[in-house]
Structure formats: structure tokens, C-alpha cells
């Protein structure tokens, strides 16, 4: 509808960027790999080059990576038929593709992998622990801290992390503590927290009783995490008021560092691209696209801390759609093309000057010129004006 001539739907910026048929042709035939060389052992062969490329860019663009990381899962909606589509009851997105995500604690996506079945398991470890080991070991810096929930955490994973000088803090399921003598706390006083520590593997188990009991496991070398304690606020049904509850420091440390993936997923869902397609790999492409935009926003805020996500997306769209059209243009011409966005004008890439058949006004000095910049699509004099126009 952006290409219609009706006043309520026509969008000049979109209509001038490319013809409608060109857009529909790209949408219909968009591919990311050679279909004549399909690897039957790789269920994600069609989209593999794109996911590898996004992972590489996400890692290269942030140095250093930092010290605190969060490991969790994310979902992208998909309602078609495919062997990798998941159904997870109780989630905001119940049908779709599942992604294993490794982020910094503030929500920057560093690395991700698409769930491709239980074949990714390492012998002796659960699926969650196997995925965590593959994404973290030999990748994140030594002495870093990884926060995981009870789906990913296990004692064999903590032993592997200890051997690779990686610290891990996370909740753990009661059936994964290998019969460690931790008492049941359901009838104990609120705030009770017994702790077990093993010197050989440097693994510490802490069970804390709040509204319900929760068990945490860590291999951290910092003794203050599991030997000290603090307090937190909690609601008491008996007293009908807020009360102070004793809390081990490891719980507070876990709560501060665990929400990285959830924060990334929340931001990605605010302005998610909703263009649909019949191809099964289109949702994975959407995840890569939206995830890359969120990462760029995180990086851009080092320069402009006050810019919001929607304003940043608008800048990206204006920079892309204001460039020369991809095909013959038959729609109404936009006056906005005379104002080239700074992201294009000063990027110092692919600006070439060429002779034009007719004269045009120079965008720098205002005099007539028979030369144009092919990328900016504006008239310029080759001697002086061209260089000055593309220099801040």
C-alpha cells in the first residue's frame, strides 16, 4: 500500500526507493545459500551463512567483551510447518523457532545458535549444559562470570567451567545436585540458607528458603559470594506487611547478572519486523535483522546516550531509503532526495563522480555543473566542491 497514489497510504520515501514489483521480487526470491549444494546433515543450511555472519559481526564490534555474561533462550514466532518449530507452554511466544543466546549482562547479543534438535547433546551432560559449554568454552575471556538458570546449570558443567577458568553462577534443579546432603527447608524459618562447599571442584551449593526454596550452584573463586549474607524485602501473608528477610549474597549477585537475554528479547520485541513470508527460514532472518538493529543501538549509545530505539531505527531507514533507487523509478519524485543524510554523505565509501547529460545545481556552491556524485545523486564540481561536500 505504500506504493498506492492515495493520500492516506502513499509513502514517498518508500515509493522512491524502489518500484513495488522490485520489492515483491526480492521478497519472493530472497535466498542466503546455494540450493544446489544442500548439506542434508545441516537442517539450517539455507540460513547458515547469515547466522554465521551476524555472530562474527556481533563479536567483532564490541571489544573488550566485558566480564559478566548471561545465557538463556529466546523465541521467534512461526506458525507454519517445520521439524524445528517448538511449542513451549506458558511463554508469550508459544509457537516458533528457539534460539540459544549468549549476551552481556546489559543485553548486547554476542553469540546465538538456533535449536536444531537434541543431537547437540554432549555425552554425560544435559542439552542445556551442552549448549552452554559450546557457546562459552574457548570463546569468552578467562575469569569471566556466566549467569544461567536451572535449565542450563548442572554439576558436570561447573566442573568443565572450572577446568577452563570460567566462573558460573545459576539456579539448579534439585534432581541435578547428585544427592548432596542439602536439607529440605519448606518447614524452616524464612531466610534459612544452608551451604555446602567442595574444595576439590570448588563447587558451592546454597539452598535458600523465601516464599519457596531455591537452590543455587556456583564455582566462583570469590568467597564473598557464598560466605556473606545480606537482607531483602519480602511480603508476609501472616503479618500483611513488608518484612526484612535474610538473603545470601549469591542470590543478590545472581539477580543482578541474570537478566541480559531477557533484556535483549524485550527490546527486540518492541519494534519487531512483522513482514511475513511462506519460507520457513524467514523468521530466522527476522531474528537476525532485529537482533542486529538492537546491537547497533547499544553501540550507538556510546556516542549518543539519549537516543531512543525508535529514533535510531528511523535514522537507519532514512539513511537506506534516501540513497539512489535500486531500479527505474516511475512514481512521484521526492524533494527530500536533495538533502542527503549525513550517514551516507560522510561515510567515505563508494562516492564516485561522473559526467551527466544535463546541467545540475552544485550541492556545495550552487553553480551549474555537469558532474554528479553517483551515490548521493547530487550535482557537484569535481575540483574542490566534491571533496568539501563529503567532508565534515
From TrEMBL:
<feature type="domain" description="PiggyBac transposable element-derived protein">
    <location>
        <begin position="1"/>
        <end position="297"/>
    </location>
</feature>
<dbReference type="GO" id="GO:0043565">
    <property type="term" value="F:sequence-specific DNA binding"/>
</dbReference>
<protein>
    <recommendedName>
        <fullName>PiggyBac transposable element-derived protein domain-containing protein</fullName>
    </recommendedName>
</protein>
<dbReference type="Pfam" id="PF13843">
    <property type="entry name" value="DDE_Tnp_1_7"/>
</dbReference>
<dbReference type="InterPro" id="IPR029526">
    <property type="entry name" value="PGBD"/>
</dbReference>
<dbReference type="InterPro" id="IPR052638">
    <property type="entry name" value="PiggyBac_TE-derived"/>
</dbReference>
Amino acid at each position: 500500500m505504500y506504493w498506492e497514489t492515495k493520500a492516506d497510504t502513499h509513502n514517498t520515501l518508500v515509493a522512491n526507493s524502489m518500484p513495488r514489483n522490485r520489492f515483491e521480487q526480492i521478497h519472493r526470491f530472497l535466498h542466503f545459500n546455494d540450493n544446489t549444494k544442500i548439506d542434508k546433515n545441516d537442517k539450517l543450511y539455507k540460513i547458515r551463512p547469515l547466522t554465521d555472519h551476524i555472530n562474527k559481526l556481533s563479536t567483532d564490534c564490541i571489544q573488550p567483551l566485558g566480564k559478566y555474561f548471561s545465557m538463556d533462550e529466546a523465541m521467534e514466532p512461526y506458525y507454519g510447518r517445520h521439524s524445528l518449530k517448538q511449542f513451549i507452554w506458558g511463554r508469550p511466544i508459544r509457537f516458533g523457532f528457539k534460539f540459544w543466546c549468549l549476551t552481556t549482562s546489559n543485553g548486547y547479543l554476542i553469540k546465538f545458535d538456533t535449536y536444531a534438535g537434541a543431537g547437540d547433546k554432549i555425552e554425560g551432560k544435559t542439552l542445556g549444559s551442552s549448549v552452554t559449554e559450546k557457546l562459552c568454552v574457548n570463546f569468552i575471556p578467562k575469569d569471566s562470570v556466566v549467569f544461567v538458570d536451572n535449565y542450563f546449570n548442572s554439576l558436570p558443567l561447573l566442573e568443565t567451567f572450572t577446568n577452563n577458568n570460567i566462573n558460573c553462577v545459576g539456579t539448579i534443579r534439585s534432581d541435578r545436585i547428585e544427592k548432596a546432603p542439602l536439607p529440605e527447608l519448606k518447614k524452616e524459618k524464612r531466610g534459612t540458607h544452608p551451604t555446602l562447599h567442595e574444595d576439590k571442584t570448588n563447587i558451592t551449593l546454597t539452598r535458600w528458603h523465601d516464599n519457596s526454596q531455591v537452590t543455587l550452584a556456583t564455582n566462583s573463586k570469590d568467597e564473598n559470594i557464598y560466605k556473606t549474607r545480606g537482607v531483602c524485602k519480602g511480603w508476609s501473608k501472616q503479618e500483611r506487611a513488608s518484612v526484612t528477610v535474610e538473603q545470601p549474597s549469591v542470590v543478590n549477585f545472581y539477580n543482578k547478572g541474570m537478566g541480559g537475554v531477557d533484556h535483549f528479547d524485550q527490546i527486540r520485541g518492541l519494534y519487531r519486523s512483522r513482514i511475513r513470508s511462506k519460507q520457513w527460514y524467514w523468521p530466522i532472518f527476522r531474528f537476525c535483522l532485529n537482533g542486529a538493529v538492537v546491537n547497533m543501538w547499544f553501540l550507538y549509545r556510546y556516542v549518543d546516550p539519549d537516543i531512543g530505539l525508535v529514533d535510531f531505527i528511523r535514522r537507519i531507514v532514512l539513511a537506506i531509503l534516501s540513497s539512489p533507487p535500486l531500479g527505474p523509478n516511475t512514481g512521484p519524485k521526492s524533494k527530500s532526495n536533495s538533502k542527503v543524510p549525513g550517514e551516507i554523505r560522510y561515510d567515505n565509501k563508494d562516492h564516485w563522480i561522473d559526467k551527466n547529460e544535463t546541467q545540475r545545481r552544485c550541492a556545495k556552491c550552487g553553480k551549474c555543473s555537469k558532474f554528479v556524485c553517483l551515490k548521493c545523486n547530487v550535482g557537484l564540481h569535481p575540483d574542490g566542491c566534491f571533496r568539501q561536500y563529503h567532508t565534515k
